[in-house]
Amino acid sequence: MSLLGIGVVLLVLVLIGIPIAISLGLVSVLAMITGPGGIGSIPNVGLVMFSGATSFPLIAIPLFILAGAIMNASGISRRLVAFASAMVGFVRGGLSMVSISASLFFAEISGSAVADVAALGSILIPAMKNKGYSSSFAAAVTSSSATLAVIIPPSIPMILYGVMSGSSVVELFVAGIVPGVLGGLMMMFVAYLLARRHNFPTEEMFKLARVWETFKEAMWALSLPLIILGGIFGGWVTATEGAGLAVVAAVFIGGVVYRELDWGHLKTAILEGGTQTAVVMLLVAASALLGDYLTEVRVPQRVAEGIMSLTQDRWAILLLLNAFFLVIGLVLHSAAAIILVVPIVMPLVLAAGIDPVHFGLVVTLNLGIGQQTPPVASVLVTACSVAKADIWEVSKVNVYFVAVLLAVLLLVTYVPSIPMILVEIFYR
Amino acid sequence: MTLTKARTGLGKLLEGLVLFLMASLALVVVVGVVFRKSGASLVWYDEVASILLAWLTYYGAALAALHRAHIGVPTLVDKLSGNLRLLVVLVAEVLVLAFLVILTWAGMQVLGVLGGTTLVSLPWVPATVAQSVIPIGAMFFIAAQLLSLPDAMKHPVSEPSRAFPDAGSPTGEGVQ
After folding, report:
1. How would you classify residue A199: left for phi > 0, otherwise alpha for psi between -120 and 50, otherwise beta?
2. Do residue B19 and residue A62 have CB atoms under 8 angstroms apart?
3. What residues of chain A, 261 to 320, have a C-beta less than 8 Å from chain B?
């Protein structure tokens, strides 16, 4: 079966509404039957679909989701918001600053932008609406800052990227820190300008006593993720083991320190997280099936050779890949995009001399922006449903914040030292 | 009425499995770290954890199918209406089921071939125990697919039934 044939059949299957994972499976079966092995090769489907789902590094995904779910069920969001409000609430448009800074902190626990929006948005969006912020502004700022937070460790897309590209998850995590903080500051600046234009209120006077009081409440929530990340960055535990410790830490904080673990909510969140993990893992397993075939016919190498024959300029190739991933992000969920596309473009990335860790940040940001742009915009949709706001109205405000995300993307792409500086200092 | 009952029953069973597997996964990884750090590494820890992830994948995938929460591109199907939409939905359904039947069959073949082999790190556990998830998981997936078909025929694909209404985010979209 020709490569074009595979592409066409896959597209048709996906467009008639068959889940992507099953479409990949069907196409692979078809390619196997028409290939040299014939019907006799079908039992391989069972073997590959099993081994494709047994990846030790990917265990970090359900564990970080589990840790986030437990923390969220134990009142951590409320404490983070109180602490952020004491720190930055005195600025005009203070609640939007709170939303951005709490998002960046929360990202250290959950690793997922949708979880971030659902947890913080449900507290902050109603609060902003009460203070006279428009619901579109409230949804936009929550949605965009959650996406920015995905490049701050731990990050589920980065774990996926690390596994699919064969690069170090730890180095990817470290590379996200500087661009994440930089982007957060830029986003606060934009929120400040918008707040002045619309005359949004300030929250509270800056009082050191209040900062201390809220810090004591939020301290556990803030410090344990940092210790766990420290363990991962220091090489003491692997990312997966760190995720396991995060679960223990979350149970300890929720059950022993805060004593307000809400079991009903927790069970729901674990089921949700388990299902999400399974959905992504099924894609990983099914892509292993097609991946075997694509490697056999050397597709990734041919893509690399084709593009390299047009241009060998690293910056031009980065521009091309940026445009490509932005378009992919418009129509595909980021997990699916990483699983499907990263293995195919990796040989090109390596041949062009682009550092795979640097490229990981570029991919994560590109697909993050895709979450903010309809038609497929999971994070934006979640924020809109929390705010009960129209997706197009929100998008009109969100343009400013998406511009910040694009600016971060350009900086990360063309000034590689921004993501790579900490990696170079500590790991190379 | 019996259809609803069957759906609820299957949902409860799969939810129980997913809860158990998530908890076991966390426990195995934590116990593994503790033992490694105390100088007595457990040989079976990575292998067992990886197998648990594969189990979570297939039992969770069946649960996701029950709620029609797998990642797809429903834009085009949603634009259709009437009999044409019904036709496309049914064709897609038959193809999905065809793949799952192939997967079940392939999984059974693998079990037959593996026969007496065992896990690398735990020689007393037959490899067939680990691999059994493929045919069993695929059969659960088929059941889930069939039980959720009546609703899928009625509603637009892009609005999957909210699997866990109070969880705050639409299923299948969280890992972003």
Report:
1. left
2. no
3. 265, 267-283, 285
